[in-house]
Amino acid sequence: MAQPAQSPNHSITKKRAYKNTKSSAAITGMGCISAAGTDTESHWININKGTACCSSVPDWLFSTKLSYPVFAAPPEALSPTGRDLFESAVQSLLFSTVSRTVNLAVSAVAEALNQAEIGLQYLREKKVGIALGTTVGCTFNNEDFYEQWRSGKKPDLAPIFHYLSGNLAQALHGILGTQGPSAVVTNACASGTDAIGLAKGWIASGACDLAVAGGADELSRIAYNGFAGLQLSDTEPCRPFDRHRKGLNLGEGAGLLVLEEEGQALERGITPLGWVRGYGSASDAWHPTAPHPEGRGLKCAFGQALADAGISIQDVAIINAHGTGTKANDLAEANALSKLLPESCHVAIVSTKGMTGHTLGAAGGLEAVLTLLALRQGVTPGTHGYLLSDPQLPVNPVPQGIFVPLPTRIGISQSLAFGGGNAVLVIEARP
Amino acid sequence: MRQEVAVTAMSVSTNKDNESVLASLKRPLRRADGLTTQAVAAAVQAMANAPSRELAPVEVGIFVGTAFGPLETNFRFLDTLFNDGEGQTSPTLFSHSVHNMSAGYISRLLDLRGPALTMTTFAWPFLSALDTAWQFMAQKKIRRALVTAVEAKSAVLEDAIERIGASDHSAPIEKAVACVLDPVEWAPTGYPVLQDLEISERPCAPQNLLTRKEETWTFQPSQCSTGPLDHALAIIRALMDLRSTSADDILTFNITSLFGNARLTWRIKEEINIKSIN
After folding, report:
1. Which CATH entry fits the domain spanning A25-429: 3.40.50.11500, 3.40.190.10, 2.60.40.10, 3.40.47.10?
2. By the number of CB atoms within 10 A of the CB, which of A81, A327, A426, B139 ranks highest?
């Protein structure tokens, strides 16, 4: 008989302070939008309440005969803050002419820049790096165009031009009017995590004065059908790590960080929210779509990230797992974590996908933001949808409805991807 | 200034060039599309040409640059969606329509377990991958980088190019280039050493990213750019030519276009460095 998920032992109450290392990137702003909220504050409230917005595909998004629920962001992808930024930044471009993915990213970047107290004028005087992850956002998704084209018609080329204008980093540079390094990482579901790791390197090497990094992605009928075809989607709200989990639900959104060299932030009079302290990335070299069953690449990336941060696993209070709710992902991830975590180590393992869905290229960015939010509050809510423990999983994540105090201010956000990619970030909140 | 890195092996892949490589990989590539096949062939050749080093699989990173990625595979997936209906789509086509599938194949077939990043930009995807690889090398995250750029042939893009009146240009051809980056001490004399790389993109009319109108480079001015892989082909071919010379000058490659500029600075490794290894 299935056992109710047990709250792991989190009785340790150690508090440590860490000195910022030269290779760390200070986080001075964060922003996000998804089905769980339109900004960081609403995300935190809804995640704590467990108010998940998982529903059948809204008509305004696309029509489908399939019955897999999704986590759709608000119909208006541009938040009021995002609209303000858009309208003050560009005079000639209408937000209705850019992709939903770009608008989601603008919403998150507007919130992050506000929090970092960075205005457009300051931004345009600086060398700004933009590193973003995406999947759907870099794909040609206009079904009408292609359907007409393949039937021998000559459809208007506007969708092609729209696609060519949609490089996420270049689009943001164009909207913000900024100049500096630009990267779109298309590492499937690990894209956002790798993008933040890349930007951390930019800050450390002085390649830019500040960086906007994370991920953004929109829901599309193509990806929706693709995951259905792979039989990786659940017809019910997803249940990461749960005994009865049957797959993932797709979601959409954006999660972005503003990264700076700490001295620069302090000169501006800004106290960092925290730091991206470590980054690791490694490959399974195993299978086109399935993770290595023992999480080979994840273990390696995890070790790299800890080494990069100069910490040990004992210093980590929370692991925001990839936790998609698929059988294979959650098992591989749990197997890897069971080898990485000594028995004496009581780390809170959670997945936030029960609240946001799997936002693909945005997931790494969104989950980095949610990890920092939990670290700043010193507590994490459990995994929405995780109610019954799976005896096959050798670790015990925090179940739904349980709140665990975090004994340190260091956490890990990790992502696994199609193609065998694994990426891990070490994030620390300022005490 | 980043620590210099050397290009120790290069390859250009077309179907014709790689029959023997592809024959040996027939089974593991049986489900792969043309994009991935070319990327793997170029990567395998480059790694075969690279100096023998004792490296753990995790010490080698893969960096793939692409503008359009598996665009045609995405269309083939859409064909199954239109023809067969929802719930009947091809899982193989969908998984291969993801941009990083080429990197995943390279990682698996060469057993390279370091970072594998795919960089997507319409401007200069090879330079984006090269720059990222160099950063990972400079930060000691890896000890060798395999950099690949690949594009697939697309009938949809060909048609679009023709319709916007750029008939003297052509859509991407199915080709790939690859090069191996090693620390300078591993490069034989006469090999190119990367000293500096600057990329500066700027907004432009989107059709310019398709036609590559006015994109030129100083190192092979007679060539006309026809797609986002051409800069990579031109750079690799220029570097191959440089290897046969004994010049030790600083070599600067400038690329200019309506969508920005890029500059690469190389030097040729001198004999003194090879002596220091011995």
Report:
1. 3.40.47.10
2. A426
